[in-house]
Amino acid sequence: MKFGLKAALAALAISASATAAMADYPERPITMIIPYGPGGATDISARTIAEALGEAVGSPVIMVNRAGAGGATGSVAVQNAKPDGYTMLFARVGSHTVNPAMKATLPYTLADFRFVGVYEINPVACAVKADSDIKTIDDLIAKVKAGGVSYSSSGVGSLLHIAAAYVLKEFGIADPVKDAIHIPLKGGGAAATAVLNDTATFICTNSSALASFVANKQLKPLLVTTAEPIVGFDAPTSADLGKPALTQLVGWTGIAGPDDLPDDIAAKWGAWMKTATDDADFRQKMESRGSVIRLMQPAESQAFIEGQYAVFRKLVDDLGMRIEN
Amino acid sequence: MSLMDSFAAGLALVWSLESLLALVGGVLVGVIAGAIPGMSATMAVALTLPFTFAMTPITGILLLVGVYKGGIFGGSIPAILIKTPGTPASSATVLDGYPMAEKGQAGRALGMALWASCTADLISNLALILFAGWLASFALSFGPPEFFTLILFSLTIIAGVSGDSLLKGLISAIMGLLLATVGLDLVYGTNRFNFNDPNLMGGLNFIAVLIGLFAIPEILTMVWNPKGQEGQARGLGGGWVTWLDYRRCFKTIVRGSLIGVVLGSIPGIGAAPAAFLSYSEARRKSKNRDNFGKGEIEGVAASESGNNGVAGATLIPLLALGVPGDVITAIIIGAFMVHGLQPGPMMFVANADIIYGLFLGLIISSIALFFIGTVAIRGFRFVADIPKALLFPVVLVLCVYGVFAVNNNIFDIGVMFAMGWVGFMMLRFGVPAAPFLIAFILGPLLEDNFRQSMLMSGGSPEILFRGPITWFFWGLTVLTVVAIARAGLRVRSKLLEEKRT
After folding, report:
1. Residue B14 belongs to some domain of the structure
2. So what's the ipTM on this one?
3. A324 in a domain, yes or no?
């Protein structure tokens, strides 16, 4: 009896301390891994929400760039991290839909992550250097047919990689993989710079990554994939061009932890992200760069990401872009 | 608005107690963070970022810039005192700074590091203010082929840091290049030498390799032979750099600063290659060439001017093009954007007051660095007087903590110790560590840019000769290789002659 009481007391103490630990979460800084290089779309988005999140969390949120292999390096770091909520990931369209759709040997699948929310949708725009003789998408297509056109991306399996091929295919290039040269760089910032210094002819990426270059008249947008025009982008929309299928091509950013992340931590993140995305300042900053703020709850996020995966997987199979080893 | 008006508007922004405090506080935080191994300047800037959100744009940006500049200098303190570079940028400082500390000249080495840093900082800031537009367009003419030739030329540094045997230097460099191939393939995204271990997928952690290669072998040597060091006292870390030292190294410092400015203005290179390039150029031109690597003050001046020359110049692509040159400036760009500022050509028109305020703040930061650095050195240099038996256990703890802190990854500590044993074996067989490190830094850059060039040209090597910049670096590379070969032959014939007589 005495023993039983002791055991019960001990169990009580342990469970009390366990709940206390959960209640205390976060009691130290949270590391958030950005699986892409500095200056790219994910980086800008992550650093903007970090400000609002930091206030909501009430504990420092440390941003770590772990770039490489289209987001795989950083994603794996979180896949293998302890599910204690102290290592979280900025999951991105590239790392969590394009890359899984393209790479057969990727060390993770969508099932390895628990998405606590998608908070941003990014329209895609294609652009060339401002002083280029390419003025419209038709000029670009004519150039591709003549040969020697290249496009830059932030790496194999990035949205940029697939977006350019997809746009070319939509405009009648039968085999974009052969007819246009893909030049992978390290990070979205480097990919935009590659168009600025004539390393590549054009780039298709999130409008947010191009906004400041377009505003500064360094790059010229050729089209946007949304049906609605994007503020600051003086270019035809997919509706103007009569290509509704292009609207499928959007980027998104969300936050994920390892798949065994406990429910209460996920719930906390849901609440924090709600607070962060309701922040007027955050919305204004994101929207001024052409992002659409849309918070999805965990279940909705999961469904959305799986739907996107299916769209891109079909694309990859149609274009023969699957990487088998 | 005329130039004078812009400067007046800028001065009005900077000349407030808040801005000046932010600047001085930033430099102080940076020096301390830089002096802790593993706590890199990058991390210090990232940790400071959230504090700037509530400040006015100019105050916040000056705070970050202060941390950045302080951090780059602070890294030289442990590099000189305990052979552990506080930031990757100061790895070249180890080569001569640590031998100087061994000779009891820690104070002199630290003083020179500070003076060279401040001078380079000033030159770099002036370059930013006067030539930002011009240097930015120059930087834009650097595509993958130009990068490739520049990196190829930079690999000739290996000859300069190989010590007595070029062959051993080359062996070391080849090992470094090999190790750098671990990771995922850039063009195909396929696995390379990573045994399907996700820890190896992103390549080996740079800081872990760095600390493993330099600091751990010293500790292992001490463990191997604890009595070996007892007889020789390290002497007091007193002494201070003299005006005469500074004058003698002045040319080297200016050269290093200019190398830093040029490399800094090109996005994607960073401070460590600039420091090594400056070091090897200084050695090539110096009268005391044979003393390099054995505690030559000019070597410290060269590497510290090289890495601080980068600090102001990385703001050139940031302000003029809106392109971040390295991780730190990417964080600073974040601070701009948080305040609704879009760096780029338009900013010089739309927010001229902030641009010129920033320019003035940068100049003030060089002065702040000088005074804060002087105080910091007076505190830190006595570390050199601590007996090794007490110092080394502390260093070991710092190394483990520092390497872990970079990515919060236990695996990295394993990498550090494995590299420590590699470094120890290299030390025993007289294989220099510096070429290994240079190859490890430059190898991936060389490969990526080569492959990007080949993609651009469809496999034709002609693209590697596509313009004056590529020809310039090819020329430099050939000249340097010929000079190295001739120097080697001369040494050999001298040896043969000595044998005959």
Report:
1. yes
2. 0.77
3. no
**How far are the Cα atoms of A91, A182, B45, B395 from residue A99, in angstroms, in the given order?**
11, 16, 31, 42
Give me the total of CB pairs closer than 8 Å, taking one residue from chain A and one from chain B: 157
Query: Is A137 found in the same domain as A235?
Result: yes
Nearest-angstrom CA–CA distance, B460 and B482? 27
* CA gap B88, B491 in Å, rounded: 33
Residue A225 distance to chain B (closest CA, Å): 24
Q: Give the residue from A206, A232, A248 where a domain finishes.
A: A248
How many Cα neighbours within 13 Å face the side chain of B360?
Answer: 22
B437 neighbors B211 (Cβ within 8 angstroms): no
Last residue of a domain, one of A193, A221, A248: A248
Total structural domains within chain B: 1
Q: Is A184 inside a domain boundary? A: yes
Range of the domain at B147: 3-230+241-491
Residue of chain B nearest A38, judged by CA positions: B330
CA distances A233 to A125, A148, A209, B346, Å, are 9, 27, 12, 16
Chain B residues 180-209 with a CB less than 8 Å from chain A:
183-184, 186-191, 196, 198, 201-203
Closest Cα in chain A to B267: A190
How near does any CA of chain A get to the CA of B46, in Å?
7
> Which DSSP helix (H) or strand (E) runs through A123?
strand A113-129
Burial A261-275 (b: 16+ CB within 10 A, else e): beeebbebbbebbee
Minimum Cα–Cα distance from A151: chain B residue:
B456
Instruction: Note the residue count of chain B.
Output: 501
- Tens of each residue's pLDDT in chain B, 501 residues: 567 777 788 788 778 888 889 999 999 999 988 887 767 777 788 778 767 777 888 898 899 999 999 998 998 998 898 888 888 888 899 999 988 988 888 888 999 999 999 999 999 999 988 888 788 878 888 889 998 998 898 888 887 777 778 889 899 999 999 998 887 777 877 778 878 776 777 778 777 888 888 888 888 888 887 766 554 555 555 677 888 889 999 999 999 999 999 888 888 777 888 999 999 889 888 888 888 888 899 999 999 999 999 988 888 888 888 777 777 887 787 778 767 777 777 777 778 888 888 888 988 999 999 999 999 988 887 777 777 778 888 888 888 887 876 666 778 899 999 999 999 999 889 898 888 988 888 888 899 999 999 998 888 899 999 989 999 999 989 998 888 888 878 878 888 887 776
B416 and B212 in contact (C-beta within 8 Å)? Answer: yes
Contact B456 A216 (CB under 8 A): no
Q: If you write DSSP's letter for every residue of B172-218 in order, what string do you get?
A: HHHHHHHHHT-EE-TTT--EESSTT-HHHHT---HHHHHHHHHHHHH
Q: Which residue range forms the structural domain that includes residue A163?
A: 123-248
pTM: 0.81
**Overall number of domains in chain A:** 2
Q: What is the CA radius of gyration of chain B?
A: 22
